[in-house]
Amino acid sequence: MSDGTLWSTDLGAPLLIDTDANPDLWGYLHLRMDRRTFKEWLGLHLAGMATVQGVGLTRRLRRFHQDFYERTLVTLRDEVGADEAFVYHAVPLAWMPLVMHASRIHCEAPDAASCAAAGALTVPHPEIPAWQQRTGGVPFASPHLGEDGVRVTRSYPADGSTLMTSVTYHWHTPPGLADVVLRGHHDDPEVIAAVLERLDDFARTLRLPEASGTAR
What we know:
Blueprint: E1 26-28, H1 35-53, H2 59-80, E2 84-88, E3 98-105, H3 116-122, E4 134-139, E5 149-157, E6 163-171, E7 179-186, H4 189-203, H5 209-212
Antiparallel strand pairs: 1-2, 2-3, 3-7, 4-5, 5-6, 6-7
């Protein structure tokens, strides 16, 4: 890593959405790994996490994470169409990992709140009773992506026993640049609440490489 930060140049290729996040807290999840590379990455990732957290890697834990990341890669690559994905390292291995995915979108609306992508985040899910959903949004500026940003948190029941909480950041950039959406969710609202400040810090590190004007 360069200077203790996660740069696209450390990954051997430029990212569509770049970051200089702390690699002790964040890892890059390649969305287009072949199976061999995935197995190598997963082994190194789990071994490193287990060492840092001081836990033993059981067969059950390995299977849990393998299943989770296999599903996540397919979803983000083939269904969501994410440009980049990042793993938050501080979630205990016994819990569902927290993966944040970033995408570039096109929006000609006058501001972030008027973009269809942002509006969809605040519209209640039609198949879930409104009283079971909680949504809140606040302005969220970025030193790299501009002042016209919003952070939306949303809680909703995913099934009869699981309450999902999602966090979404959306920045409406100047004309000629893509908007950026960063999003993640977790099945434990307390996890999101506990790490929200660090999520905010990470969100502020995102940038569009073509807009930075500097080589690293």
